[in-house]
Write a structure and sequence with these properties.
Helix content: 10-25%
Shape: globular
Largest sheet: 6 strands, mixed
CATH topology: Purple Acid Phosphatase, chain A, domain 2
Number of helices: 6
Strand order of the largest sheet: 4-5-6-7-9-8
Bound molecules: fe (ii) ion
Radius of gyration: 18 Å
Structural class: alpha/beta
CATH superfamily: Metallo-dependent phosphatases
Number of strands: 13
Mean pLDDT: 94
Length: 267
C-alpha cells in the first residue's frame, strides 16, 4: 500500500495576488508530479492548510487543482482552514461530514487503517485536541486493535505547536495502542521525524515554501528557507512496516517563485 501525503498547500483564490510566492502554481507542479508516477499511490492525504485564510474562493481554487489527482484524496483541516467553507466546497467528500462537527474520520478497506484527526481551533495558529476529540481517537483505536494504523493530523505532536497537557493525553492514548505505526503531520513546512509514544511522528514538506530550521527570534516571524517543496510517500508492507520517502520537487519552487522581483525573497 502506498500513501502519498501532501500538506500546507496555502492556495489563494483565482486571480488573487500571491504575496511573493505563487502557492497555486507550486501545488499544480506537485499534482502533476504525483500524476506522472508510474506507480500511483492508493490514496492521498492532504494534511491541512489547504487554503491560506480559509475562504470559499480559496477552496474552489484548491479543489480545481486537487480534482486533477488520479487517485482519491482525503482532507483534514489545519490552522489556516475553516471547517464550514471546506465542507461547502468539498461537498462530494462525504467522509468529512461527521456527527460531532469535527472533520475527523477513519479510512477503512486498505491494509493500513488511516485515522484523520482535527486539530483546528478557530483563531489559534497552534493546534488543539480537546477531550472530545481525544476520546473519539481512543474509541477508534480501541475498536480495531488488530489493525495496523496510521494517524494523520495537521499539527505535529512534538515541539511547541500543541499544548503540553494535550500532547501528554495524546501520548497516553497512543502508547496504549501499539498498532499505531506512525503519526504523520504538516504545519512546520519542513521534513522532521521524532520518536513519539512508542511509535514515530513525521512531518512532510509543504507543497509551497519551506521554513528554516532556526526557531523564530523574539518579535520575528518564521524564517523562510530555500529548501524545495515536495510531498511524501509512505509505503506499507506487512513484513517490512512503514517506510517514508520524501520527494522534493525543485520545479515547484521555480513555478512558485517565477514572479518574484529581482532580489525579492519569499515571505
Ligand atoms: Fe502551513
Ligand atoms: Fe499550519
Amino acid at each position: 500500500m502506498i500513501i502519498a501525503q501532501i500538506t500546507d498547500l496555502h492556495v489563494r483564490p483565482h486571480g488573487a495576488s500571491h504575496s511573493r510566492y505563487n502557492t497555486n502554481a507550486s501545488l499544480e507542479v506537485i499534482v502533476d508530479a504525483i500524476n506522472a508516477r508510474d506507480t500511483q499511490p492508493d490514496v492521498i492525504l492532504a494534511t491541512g492548510d489547504l487554503g491560506n485564510v480559509g475562504t470559499i474562493d480559496e477552496y474552489v481554487a484548491a479543489k480545481e487543482i486537487l480534482d486533477r489527482l488520479k487517485v482519491p484524496y482525503f482532507i483534514i483541516p489545519g490552522n489556516h482552514d475553516a471547517r464550514q467553507p471546506l465542507l461547502d466546497v468539498f461537498h462530494d467528500h462525504a467522509y468529512m461530514r461527521t456527527d460531532n462537527g469535527y472533520i475527523q474520520y477513519t479510512i477503512e478497506g486498505f491494509p493500513l487503517r488511516l485515522i484523520g484527526l482535527d486539530t483546528l481551533e478557530d483563531g489559534n495558529n497552534n493546534g488543539t485536541l480537546c477531550d472530545e476529540r481525544l476520546g473519539w481517537l481512543s474509541d477508534r483505536l480501541e475498536e480495531r486493535r488488530d489493525r495496523p494504523t496510521l494517524v494523520f493530523m495537521h499539527h505535529p505532536p512534538f515541539g511547541v505547536s500543541m499544548r503540553p497537557d494535550e500532547v501528554s493525553a495524546l501520548r497516553a492514548i497512543i502508547e496504549r495502542h501499539p498498532q499505531v505505526e506512525r503519526v504523520v503531520s504538516g504545519h512546520i513546512h519542513r521534513v522532521i521525524s521524532a520518536r513519539f509514544a512508542g511509535t514515530m511522528a513525521t512531518v512532510s514538506p509543504s507543497t509551497c515554501y519551506a521554513f528554516a530550521f532556526a526557531p523564530p527570534k523574539p518579535g520575528e516571524g518564521l524564517q523562510h528557507s530555500d529548501e524545495p517543496p515536495g510531498y511524501q510517500l509512505h509505503i506499507w508492507r506487512k513484513e517490512m512496516g512503514l517506510a517514508t520517502h520524501t520527494v522534493f520537487i525543485p520545479a515547484a519552487a521555480e513555478a512558485g517563485r517565477a514572479h518574484l522581483a529581482e532580489g525579492e525573497t519569499v515571505g
